[in-house]
């Protein structure tokens, strides 16, 4: 979906030809919309879907392990995932270390064999990446979503994780060290393959405010991020950080860690706030609203939103990318309006 040269120029503020735009259709949408109409919209927007190939109907996506209805999934950490909708990532219903009494017998996963959320063959992975590099394609690789703080929450439970931080629990520190060692191995393997961008996706925000205090983030999580980013930085690999939710009070720490790209939500954090605090300092990978305007606004509202974001956060020099994740509930006419606007305003500075 991304042109390698253009994306790298956007991240490095080197005057890209256009604003990189990405439109992701969540697998759950294929059960919620007429499939032909979704395929028609994709075919009508070749800029957003340059490699589009119409599939036979009925189309059944290859749902991820953690997004299969009626199929609970035990991940590599011993966390049991469940979902109520095919395609929608579930939540952890059983935490393997809800009680510290089990810690001495707890089995840690092996990063040589798995990613934490599924098996991996590193030889096959290297071959896949080398094939992309030979074709001149962008290589973005990295950790599973929820790699550190959320991994703690999955293993211990959210409430217990917060209590552990406040109580300065020794077993908690040991668990965190082992998670970081697991993650660092994965980063080192990808860094050895000289990928273009290393991704560190982890939701830290709620609707209002972060999931943990800025003080605990700085004390416990930020040093982990810096340690895990080091192998990529040593190879001059660009660092891409993602978090949903309101992360405004954590942004100074994320900038301190040396990220090159921050993927954050637009209206939750505020377009004006993002402009004042991030524009020109780091490449903004803007996550377009899924809560207010795109599901409930008019087609004109959607066009106005994309234009405003491009004007306020963009520049001919670069520093802006945009992404939209489609989930059920957005009217088809609004989906079309959004695709139209993203294709149109991608070339606003050209």
UniProtKB/TrEMBL annotation:
SUPFAM superfamilies: UROD/MetE-like. Residues 99-345 form the Uroporphyrinogen decarboxylase (URO-D) domain. Pfam families: URO-D. This is Uroporphyrinogen decarboxylase (URO-D) domain-containing protein.
